[in-house]
């Protein structure tokens, strides 16, 4: 299909604006502690070499959650194809830090190039991927077109677009058909999204229902030394966790904790905001509730305080290990929820608000499996936490349901890896 006029206009605009966007992105990465050398990966300047032997399979996953969701899949594909090498790209400093600690064998990470002619061409010329797997919703037109022109096979997995994005694409049917037509296969999270892709002019014979890759993720890492120090400091105190909370949710969580303290005076709230840079703001909220606290980023231990503010990255695995009463944020406000699989992988059920539209099908499955309890305010949240802490029957039943649910999902990793290998015509690499 010939590129529509809108695509040509986009290419011209990005070529002109490369210096401006390069300055913004480089500055953002440098502020997050990324070296200037690695920040220039955004301009297509590779900082790693391409392995000579075996095919290179490129996974592009924009965010932390998307990046982490594909690591188990890469590991399984690598096991089945011992000659293959893997490249994973993402856009943020946080995702780079998280992925760096979990890279499977024969896998390297780079920052994705800006969607402009020069950066994308430099990137493809260096890496020469035989196959590319794009994850979820990052549809960069030039990245897709130039990768396709290089002869690489292309798959979109976990395909998901918001209602707003769908409407925007539907208003530009020629551009949508051109962009979605670059893929050899589009795997969606559910039947509804499969139909939406077809409605957006994706080739119907290339659209199929897949699986939510986040269900294949490995359990979050734990640090035994950190856990030992925390448990020693707690001296047997019980804990409940509020993880990945957003602005407007901490107030609800803290009010719930005040309610819980009335009958559980020794109870600790371990509060882990989604964005640790909001630490000062959250501290102010804790003080306004009259609660005592300590802060993880200051190397403090919880001791006998009411709240432990876990304002660090990469430690959720430790916090989930401390409790079976876990509230997952991004769900009491219209944010769409966060990955609930990480909670169930710890052997716990999930307490969640109702605003989980980004994971609607997942939560429907989990609800049916008896893994999720929904709450809408501080009173219901306090009640749900109290039940998980003090009702042994509920605690055991929910934990058992979570473990059964995880076992059912984890067995699918090999099946999905085999499906992708076939779709990418890599059967000859399987040993």
What does this structure look like?
The longest helix has 27 residues, at 5-31. The chain has helices at residues 5-31, 36-39, 64-80, 93-100, 117-127, 141-149, 163-170, 173-180, 191-199, 224-234, 250-263, 279-288, 316-320, 341-344, 360-368, 378-390, 392-410, 413-423, and strands at residues 56-60, 85-90, 107-111, 131-135, 153-159, 185-188, 207-209, 239-245, 268-273, 293-295, 307-309, 326-328, 350-352, 372-374. It contains 18 helices and 14 strands. It has two domains: 5-211 and 412-429, 3-Layer(aba) Sandwich (Rossmann fold), CATH 3.40.50.11720; 224-410, Rossmann fold, CATH 3.40.50.2000. It has a seven-stranded parallel beta sheet with strand order 3-2-1-4-5-6-7, with helices on both faces. A seven-stranded parallel beta sheet has the order 10-11-9-8-12-13-14. Helix content is 46%, strand content 15%. It is of the alpha/beta class. Helix 3 (64-80) links the parallel strand 1 and strand 2 (85-90).
Write the layout of secondary structure elements.
Blueprint: H1 5-31, H2 36-39, E1 56-60, H3 64-80, E2 85-90, H4 93-100, E3 107-111, H5 117-127, E4 131-135, H6 141-149, E5 153-159, H7 163-170, H8 173-180, E6 185-188, H9 191-199, E7 207-209, H10 224-234, E8 239-245, H11 250-263, E9 268-273, H12 279-288, E10 293-295, E11 307-309, H13 316-320, E12 326-328, H14 341-344, E13 350-352, H15 360-368, E14 372-374, H16 378-390, H17 392-410, H18 413-423
Parallel strand pairs: 1-2, 1-4, 2-3, 4-5, 5-6, 6-7, 8-9, 8-12, 9-11, 10-11, 12-13, 13-14
Helix pairs in contact: 3-4, 3-18, 5-6, 11-16, 16-17
């Amino acid at each position: 299909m010939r590129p529509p006029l809108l695509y040509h206009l986009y290419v011209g605009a990005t070529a002109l604006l490369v210096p401006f966007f390069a300055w913004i992105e480089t500055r953002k990465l440098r502020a997050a502690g990324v070296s200037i050398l690695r920040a220039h990966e955004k301009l297509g300047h590779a900082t790693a070499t391409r392995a000579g032997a075996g095919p290179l399979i490129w996974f592009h996953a924009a965010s932390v959650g998307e990046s982490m969701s594909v690591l188990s899949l890469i590991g399984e594909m690598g096991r089945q194809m011992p000659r293959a090498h893997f490249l994973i790209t993402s856009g943020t400093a946080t995702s780079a830090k998280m992925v760096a600690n979990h890279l499977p064998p024969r896998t390297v990470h780079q920052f994705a190039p800006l969607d402009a002619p020069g950066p994308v061409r430099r990137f493809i010329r260096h890496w020469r991927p035989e196959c590319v797997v794009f994850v979820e919703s990052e549809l960069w037109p030039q990245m897709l077109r130039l990768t396709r022109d290089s002869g690489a096979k292309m798959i979109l997995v976990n395909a998901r677009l918001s209602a707003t994005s769908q409407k925007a694409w539907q208003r530009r049917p020629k551009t949508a058909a051109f962009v979605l037509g670059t893929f050899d296969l589009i795997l969606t999270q559910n039947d509804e999204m499969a139909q939406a892709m077809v409605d957006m002019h994706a080739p119907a014979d290339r659209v199929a229902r897949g699986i939510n890759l986040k269900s294949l993720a490995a359990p979050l890492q734990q640090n035994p030394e950190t856990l030992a120090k925390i448990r020693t400091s707690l001296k047997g105190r019980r804990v409940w966790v509020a993880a990945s909370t957003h602005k407007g949710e901490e107030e609800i969580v803290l009010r719930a904790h005040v309610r819980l303290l009335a009958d559980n005076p020794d109870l600790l709230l371990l509060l882990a905001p989604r964005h640790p840079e909001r630490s000062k703001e959250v501290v102010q909220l804790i003080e306004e509730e009259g609660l005592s606290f300590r802060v993880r980023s200051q190397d403090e231990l919880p001791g006998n305080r009411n709240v432990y503010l876990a304002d660090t990255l990469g430690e959720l695995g430790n916090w989930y290990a401390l409790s079976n009463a876990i509230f997952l944020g991004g769900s009491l406000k219209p944010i769409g929820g966060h990955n609930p699989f990480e909670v169930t992988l710890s052997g716990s059920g999930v307490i969640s608000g109702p605003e989980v539209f980004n994971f609607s099908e997942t939560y429907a499955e989990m609800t049916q499996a008896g893994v999720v309890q929904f709450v809408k305010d501080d009173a219901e949240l306090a009640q749900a936490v109290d039940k998980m802490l003090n009702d042994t029957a509920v605690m055991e039943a929910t934990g058992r349901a979570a473990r059964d649910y995880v076992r059912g999902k984890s067995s699918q990793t090999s099946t999905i890896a085999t499906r992708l290998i076939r779709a990418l015509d890599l059967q000859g690499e399987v040993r």
